[in-house]
Amino acid sequence: MADSSTTDLGKGKRITGGDRTSLADELRQRYDGGESIRSLATSTNRSYGFVHRLLSESGATLRGRGGANRNAKKAG
Fold first, then answer.
1. Contacts (Cβ under 8 Å, ≥6 apart) of 38
2. What range does the domain containing 51 cover?
3. Considering the domain boundaries, does residue 55 fall inside one?
4. What is the pLDDT of residues 3-60, one digit of tens each?
5. Cα 54 to chain center, whole Å?
C-alpha cells in the first residue's frame, strides 16, 4: 500500500534528511505490521539492501529468515 510519500521516489534517487526519516518511519510501521522487506522494496521501487539499511537505521527489530529449521529434530 504505497501512499503519496512513497510514490514519488524514483529508483536511484538520493533520499536524505526529513524525507529519509519519514520514509524510514513509514517502512518500519509497515514492516512491523507484517510486510516483508522484499515487498517493501518492490512497492517503493527501491533495492532490498536500501530498505534493509533504512529499517536497521530506524531501530526496527528485523525478523529472521523464514523456511524450515535445519536443526529441528524429526518426530519418529
1. 48
2. 18-62
3. yes
4. 445 545 667 788 889 999 999 999 999 999 999 999 999 999 999 999 999 999 999 9
5. 7
